[in-house]
Design goal:
The protein has 102 residues and is α+β, with helices and mostly antiparallel strands.
Length: 102
């Protein structure tokens, strides 16, 4: 199974997927910490996370998958949403809450 197949399986097999540096309990960068806080504040309860620091092939593969150069990356219902900056804008507009609740 290729890295792209693994990522596709993760993204489509879970409602909410966050590729991040570190874990929700111990984020390894400020952007990943912000992404987790935003998801919690938005009411997301079942978030599947992937620590890209522990999986270097996924760290590069996820950038290619979405053609997005940075991590964290959020996927909801198999669709790429964006990074922490986009999540912050969506949260301020009430869009992130609706997305993770729906």
């Amino acid at each position: 199974m290729s890295v792209q197949d693994i990522i596709r399986e993760q993204v489509t097999g879970h409602k909410i997927v966050l590729y991040m540096k570190g874990t929700p309990q111990f984020p390894q960068c400020g952007f990943s910490a912000s992404a987790i806080q935003l998801l919690k504040a938005a009411g997301a309860t079942d978030v599947f996370t992937v620590n890209v620091l522990m999986e270097p092939e996924i760290r590069q593969g996820i950038k290619d998958y979405a053609n997005w150069p940075t991590i964290p990356q959020l996927y909801v219902n198999g669709e790429f949403v964006g990074g922490s900056d986009i999540m912050k804008e969506m949260f301020a507009a009430g869009e992130l809450q609706a997305l993770v609740a729906g």
